[in-house]
Amino acid sequence: MSEMCAIRRTRLREQCNAAGHAAAIVSRPANVRYLAGATPHGAVLLLGRTEDLLVCTGPRDVHPAEDRPDDTLRLHVLAGPGDPAVAAADLAGAQGADSLAVEEHHLTVARHRAIRSVVPRLRLTDLAASVEQLRVVKDEEEISCLRIGAEITDQALGELLESILVGRTERHLALELERRLVDHGADGPAFTTSVATGPNAGRRGHRPTDRRVEEGDFLSVCLGAAYRGYRCEIGRTFVIGTSPADWQIELYDLVFAAQRAGREALTPGAACRDVDRAARQVLGSGGHSEGLPPATGHGVGLEIDEDPQLAPAAMGKLDACVPVTVEPGVHLPGRGGVRIDDTLVVRPEADGGPELLTITTKELLAL
Amino acid sequence: MSEMCAIRRTRLREQCNAAGHAAAIVSRPANVRYLAGATPHGAVLLLGRTEDLLVCTGPRDVHPAEDRPDDTLRLHVLAGPGDPAVAAADLAGAQGADSLAVEEHHLTVARHRAIRSVVPRLRLTDLAASVEQLRVVKDEEEISCLRIGAEITDQALGELLESILVGRTERHLALELERRLVDHGADGPAFTTSVATGPNAGRRGHRPTDRRVEEGDFLSVCLGAAYRGYRCEIGRTFVIGTSPADWQIELYDLVFAAQRAGREALTPGAACRDVDRAARQVLGSGGHSEGLPPATGHGVGLEIDEDPQLAPAAMGKLDACVPVTVEPGVHLPGRGGVRIDDTLVVRPEADGGPELLTITTKELLAL
What CATH number has the domain bearing residue A224? Predict the structure, then answer.
């Protein structure tokens, strides 16, 4: 891990040098973790002219176990309270840098001003999304973390499906899933688990309520494990009771077909918008072109929603070794709906095509 | 609630007018919720020249139940993807404002630039922490939410103490506590529940690990319920086994005395730093002046850590109806430690002095 972090910093340094930045401060937590192997609370990474430093407010904030900073990187602990980004800027100046790139999409206006005031002679520039771009294509160690996270997620979901669901609330089912994720070795849930029943089913990002599962409901769940910081996602929709209604079968088949079309469009070199269009067209052909979510998928990694976006206006193409979700859905207000969501890794045809990480069945189960 | 939100917006508007801001955009989520009664994901509040608007990206992001925006406030939903803050700035311009205050401590440099580019003729000013300052003193409805949250928290903790603890991991105990919070009616945990055993005990913000509870351990827990958005906090330390060791009793008594001193110093008009000093001096008198946390307490409300800070360098005085935590602790590296944490509301002597919301016993229990 240490070695990987050092390689990543070298890549970033090359980009900075090419762009004319003498030094850079990385403040966005997932970016700090990517480059330093750990994110003590509030820590920033100084990519310095003479030395890289992980600047943080106190050793008590450094967590044990996996979340240990890379040993090739020196920790600089502030003596008192203070903003590590401001301290890092001061250190960059002391190392003789004349310009300093910062993450303008993460730093607030107030912090940026505080940095400027401590190093008035440094030219402040924008690092923009350089680190996010480095993070898009994953190495096999990262994919392996996602794969383990997906296994944990499948296990947690599988166990839930074996239990009695009718009469239990969305909130309880969500908590139960999160407990099972941790039971199976997750750091924790990758995001707030969503369980949606009846008229709530199929709503993207639905927050669990006290509604209880009833016979005849659609039940949609969306969950994922975080494992060593890497976050995956699965979404499935089930029917409660012995026999789904015709409209439920029709809607399910349509979303399933859309999701399959999206999955099949995942190839290295495919335009992100074309993957989105593949899924969206199927939904449109079923008369559901209105009220669709803005994206039908997105990258995952150290954050649950990262580049690339699979959306109508998305630019760019997919590369191999990019993990993404494919998650079309339809929600009919007042009636409920269906979402089906997988995490997959883009792989070339020669390697067997997209690698499905979340393998729970996508048949319409009646529970 | 609607009425309260309208009153709060009127107060903010008066401040804005006095400061010469024609309009303001509130983007920090807890501030939006305070003024609008809800925080649809990414929504911002425009305090406009002619009308206030809650600007958000999609109706699907509006959550049901309590989290419903105030009916005196019109919802402005963007047609496509986009930054609600940028859209709100555009609307402020259309309403004829010539200046616009924004939360520079919340908006990123990049978003601020995007706002500037859409309304180049508007003078952008800093709203600073105006809303946070309004939020410090709570009304009785807010305190009632905190009180219910504290009751839920006490119940969850009380139930855990009745169960067998030895052999269970920190992670499991933390999850169990969070489940019980929800069982008793919490929206969810107010923050990540901390359970720390043995050498981890007493570490502030310790993230639960797979370490199991052992005989002779200190066990410290810190948890809290969020109830209708309001977040409280309790921390307790216990001993596992029949008889605590002498060093454990001594350390416990010291932290208990420090925490009591802090609680007793909570009066309207007391300087925040004096409350901190009251607790800190006791710890110092016991030989623990090094390695102490930067603050011994903080405000709570819509966020778990808000103004005021009870810290050596804190400015300002306490007012009545300000809920704060008092949470001194000592951690001895390699051995463990003690933290005791309550949520209280500052009240005048005539009303009986500080109101203790978290009433779980602070005797040293041997479990």
Answer: 3.90.230.10
**Closest to B227 in 3D by CA, of B147, B158, B321, B343:** B147
Of the candidates B64, B80, B112, which has its C-beta nearest A109's C-beta?
B112
Would you say residue B40 has pLDDT above 90?
no
A330 membership: H or E segment, kind and range: strand A329-332
A24, A162: one domain: no
Separation CA A32–CA B74 (nearest Å)? 40
**What confidence tens digit (pLDDT) does each residue in A59-77 have?**
554 444 445 667 778 899 8
Residues 6+ apart with CB under 8 A from B191: B224, B231, B233, B304
Asked if omega into B312 is within 30° of 0 (cis), the reply is: no
Mean pLDDT score of chain A: 93
- Pick from B76, B107, B135: which residue ends a domain? B135
For B174-193, the pLDDT digits (tens) are: 989 998 999 899 999 999 99
User: Where in the sequence is the domain holding A233, given as residue range(s)?
Assistant: 137-356
What pLDDT score does B336 carry? Answer: 95
If asked whether residues A196 and A338 sit together in one domain, one would say: yes
Of B104, B111, B203, the CB nearest to A110: B104
- Among the partner-chain residues B109, B171, B175, the one whose CB lies closest to the CB of A107 is B109
Q: Are A335 and A357 in contact (CB under 8 A)?
A: no
Question: What is d(CA B61, CA B83) in angstroms, rounded to the nearest whole number?
Answer: 14
Q: Is the pLDDT of residue B109 over 60?
A: yes
Question: Amino acid identity of B317?
Answer: K
Alpha helix stretches (DSSP H) within chain A: 2-19, 29-36, 84-94, 109-118, 130-136, 140-161, 170-183, 246-264, 272-285
Question: Does the residue A10 lie in any domain?
Answer: yes
Count of domains for chain B: 2
Entry pTM: 0.88
Give the mutation candidate from A27, A78, A108 for the B interface (greatest B CB count, under 10 A): A108
Residues B348 and B320 in one domain: yes
Q: Is A309 a domain residue?
A: yes
Do residues B146 and B115 both lie within one domain? Answer: no
pLDDT of residue A63: 45
Q: What pLDDT, on the 0 to 100 scale, is given for residue A65? A: 41
CA-based torsion, B54, B59, B60, B65: positive or negative: positive
Distance CA A79, CA A136 (A): 36
Q: Are residues B120 and B131 in the same domain?
A: yes
Query: Which of A56, A62, A109 to substitute to test the interface with B, most B CBs within 10 Å?
Result: A109
Residues A203 and A317 in one domain: yes
And the tokens for A139? 């190495």
Closest CA to A29 of A13, A45, A15: A45
Residue B292: the pLDDT is 81
Yes or no: say if A366 and A243 are a contact pair by the CB < 8 Å rule: yes
Shared-domain flag, residues A141 and A122? no
Q: Among B93, B120, B135, which residue terminates a domain? A: B135
A195 shares its domain with A222: yes
